[in-house]
């Protein structure tokens, strides 16, 4: 038998597989324990007990209210500020109120109340400082009522208007049509916070600011002209009964030229330093006497304007008289109003007297006015011997077959220019007549000639004429200046 190497290997493998199992090894040694962790941080101490914190505290006490009126509050309007009187520190106190019908706005230990309805109610203030609680009970009455308002069209740019609540229809008006220097008389309406629209021929031409019109008050609303804009002054009227034989009167400065003046009677001030847009305090004037009022515009206790033989009346139900002073450079009006429908407005107009002296000069240049010439022609008159313009008349003689083509303007030595005619008159022939400073001339100036009042009179005055069309010729024949000297 041949034994090969492969057979030997197989035999050897067979012999090994038939041996006994080996012995298990022993377990390894256990490791040592780890180091113990550090102790946790101690907790904070608990808060002191209530008894300990407030042991020495003085109990909170409310002793009263400061600023609380005994009169009823106006529903929907904030009250005056009321302060809680107490023995604590306001910064440490929380305040609350138990009650109905009042909205509170707190500021520390003070509050303002706004009644949300008409009512009589008990209100309880509850206050706590963390140690003790205090309460205070008080009573509040709030009323809804009517407001009475008299509207005066003192001299607004609106010749007439109808006034109603803003956003409402014109038919829901508070006043009928109100011409210049007329009043509506007191009209009663629901009190509240309002602005008003002013209607002219079905169109809203102006809107007032928002006014607070409180119940059971009487107001005069003056509508006036402030530099061409519609302006408003709301005055609360005092209906306190005057002394027997006397009438309650106050003065209001709505004069566009004099921002401050004094109102005099017999040289003594009835109202001093009366500022534009304000009213004086009330004064009592004798009913049976005729009064003479003066306006002192420069503080020398001498009147520049006088109103003589004025009869003061008590007015209806002793309503007070409001006296409005208004006007322009050469006129001043005094508007007496008793705010009711039974007394007509009393109006006095006073023109500044004609200047004592005047200077007159004429030029006859016979200048052809070129067609379609934006430069036009100019002519000059020199005035001497007159310092300041107190009056002015400009007389023109211009030939033209279509006067609506012409622009005519005059310029003072100070450089003030006023447009006398601005393409006015259409196909009418010629411009012949005079323009006067106070508007009383035979021709009406396109721009207000009052701008020339007070200008330097001495020097060169220039008249300029322009023809804006090419269809008709014209000639500046002559013109005359008559300057009143101040």
Polypeptide structure, described:
The chain has 486 residues and is mainly beta. The chain folds into four domains: 62-143, Immunoglobulin-like (Sandwich); 146-236, Sandwich (Immunoglobulin-like); 246-351, Immunoglobulin-like (Sandwich), CATH 2.60.40; 357-485, Jelly Rolls. It is built from two helices and 37 strands. Strands 9, 12, 13, 18 and 19 form a five-stranded mixed beta sheet that branches. It has a five-stranded mixed beta sheet with strand order 23-20-26-27-28, with no helix packed on it. Strands 29, 30, 32, 35 and 37 form a five-stranded antiparallel beta sheet that branches.
Keywords:
single chain, 486 residues, mainly beta, Immunoglobulin-like, five-stranded mixed beta sheet, disordered N terminus
Topology:
Blueprint: H1 5-16, H2 50-53, E1 62-66, E2 73-74, E3 82-86, E4 94-98, E5 102-107, E6 110-115, E7 119-128, E8 133-143, E9 146-153, E10 160-165, E11 178-179, E12 182-183, E13 187-190, E14 192-194, E15 196-200, E16 203-207, E17 211-213, E18 218-226, E19 229-236, E20 246-253, E21 260-265, E22 268-275, E23 283-286, E24 290-296, E25 305-311, E26 321-327, E27 331-337, E28 346-351, E29 357-363, E30 367-369, E31 373-383, E32 389-400, E33 406-411, E34 417-422, E35 431-436, E36 459-467, E37 474-485
Parallel strand pairs: 2-8, 9-18, 20-26
Antiparallel strand pairs: 1-3, 3-6, 4-7, 5-6, 7-8, 9-12, 9-13, 10-11, 10-15, 14-17, 15-16, 18-19, 20-23, 21-22, 21-24, 24-25, 26-27, 27-28, 29-37, 30-37, 31-36, 32-35, 32-37, 33-34, 33-36
